UniProtKB/TrEMBL annotation:
Protein name: ImmA/IrrE family metallo-endopeptidase
Organism, scientific name: Inconstantimicrobium porci
Top-rank taxon, per record: Bacteria
Domain IrrE N-terminal-like: 63-168
Classification of source organism: Bacteria, Bacillati, Bacillota, Clostridia, Eubacteriales
Signal peptide: none
């Protein structure tokens, strides 16, 4: 899937949920009828999407986060990354496809050095979901002084790492 299509999809979901810049991503997971669990995961795995269900009396999915993650910003991005798999690769919003995917016992996980098309797509989704284009440009313009962007303040507005904010700006062509 093309990056711009993924970004637009993530931003549409963000807008539909009417999320603020530094929204509580745990409430988003719960609102989507999912659960979040901090646990010990296999070596190198920092988050995973598991326990898919289309049964009414059970949560629809579980996102497990490594108990070794200490940064709130890293935690948020990892959860958003797993939501990317949920929406893009598992067709969460399409009931028929979701029910079919639930029967497959698919598990997606994010490792330290994730590569591959699906992982890149989930990262693209996470960045756009946490930092939608219009909001990102507006915040960036607010923190532009003396021909420089204050990356730390921009990142704080979205509760993401400076690195995530930097790459979002690069991908949007705001800075090089």
């Amino acid at each position: 899937m093309h990056n711009r299509i993924i970004e637009e999809y993530a931003e549409r979901i963000n807008n539909t949920l009417n999320l603020e810049n530094d929204f509580d991503i745990e409430n988003v997971v719960i609102g989507l009828d999912g659960t979040l669990e901090e646990t010990t995961l296999n070596s190198g795995v920092i988050a995973q999407l598991t326990d898919l269900s289309d049964e009414e009396d059970k949560p629809k999915f579980k996102i497990q986060i490594s108990d070794l993650i200490v940064s709130e910003q890293r935690r948020r991005f990892s959860i958003a990354h797993e939501l990317g798999h949920l929406f893009i690769h598992l067709d969460f919003l399409n009931e028929e496809k979701w029910a079919n995917n639930c029967r497959k016992s698919i598990i997606y996980h994010r490792e330290e050095m994730s590569t591959g098309i699906e992982e890149t797509e989930a990262n693209t989704f996470a960045a756009a979901f946490l930092m939608p284009t219009d909001k990102f440009i507006k915040v960036s313009n607010c923190y532009f002084n003396d021909d420089r962007y204050d990356l730390k303040k921009i990142a704080q507005q979205f509760n993401v790492s400076k690195e995530s904010a930097y790459y979002r700006g690069v991908n949007l062509g705001i800075w090089v």
